[in-house]
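User: Show me an example of a complex going from sequences to structure tokens.

Assistant: Sure. Here are the input components:
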Amino acid sequence: MIYLELFWSFFQVGLFSFGGGYAAMPLIQNQIVDKNGWLTMSEFADVITISQMTPGPIGINSATFVGTRIAGLPGAIVATMGNITPSCIIVLILAFLYYKYRGLSTIQGILQGLRPAVVALIASAGLSLTTVALWSEETITYKMADIDLIAVTILVLSLFILRKWKTNPIYVMAGAGILGLCFYSFL
Amino acid sequence: MTKDMKFYLKLFSSTFYLSAFTFGGGYVIIPLMKKKFVDEYQWIEEKEILDLTAIAQSTPGAMAVNAAILIGYRMAGILGAVITILGTILPPLIILTVISLAYSAFIENQIVKLILRGMQAGVAAVVIDVSLTMILGVLKGKKIIPIMVMVGAFVATFLLDINVVYIILASGLIGAISIIKFNKKSGEKS
């Protein structure tokens, strides 16, 4: 029963992927390449590339891609459902507990400790994204000579616009894409 | 707030829209959600977004999906969660279904490549912008423990590459201990 297998494989991916998309990569590889042989390793590498180029979580992207190849659109839907089911259950339980008990002083304390840490996590993700954007080569060298000046220009300009006019980030991102197309093709 | 058809449609379309623009990893959805739900709609507070982020981060699965479930549940219970889940998974589901049918053509496309390279820089700017605002917020509080937790968590994640689950657990523990100590102190005084 292919639908059940798809569901169960991506259920496990969803259940065990803590800490963002890159942490999920080895799990997905294990399920779809090593265990089930649904994709070859090079096809899997393509899925990763596509995931980086398109919006959306890598787990859902690979679930859709594999599902479609194995069993068409129903396969994609079943695999995606499998991927998000563990999240749904666990997150809903935690959300319920959070709204019920967040008034307690100990919980208040825990949350006060968490908030600055979350700020740090977001800032750290921002820096990682910056290095990826500025050193667009395969390996990040951190050398000034290898820096992508067009990317620096787009980043500084975007940041300036965001800080100065509090522009909707989605317009800024779309604008950055258009600038990228113009600059990289004509310069 | 009246929870009519219009409200649910707004909830669905905003999560759909955000999900369609979450390039570059799950954290990108947090600044976008903050702008939309805190600044624009004023449905929830900034503090709450940080709490929900901590929950989304410490549970398994995709950050964007977890955050969407939390926002949906917060706004309209289980039905709200179902709506935001649909809004979040539909864009990648549609895009990847289309791409999987013609994926080599897509990967090789030069125009797509260049647009995405420009967008990477834009995405980085969006996350830096929101980080700056939040960092300044913590610094303005002028309390030593939150500032130390923020710096410590940054070093732990960015320089030492420690698993975020441990960072969340440790900072939660620090928060719990400091409030218990504070309560004891004020208890002794009175």
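The lines above are the inputs; the final block is the predicted structure for all two components together. The mean pLDDT of chain A is 85.
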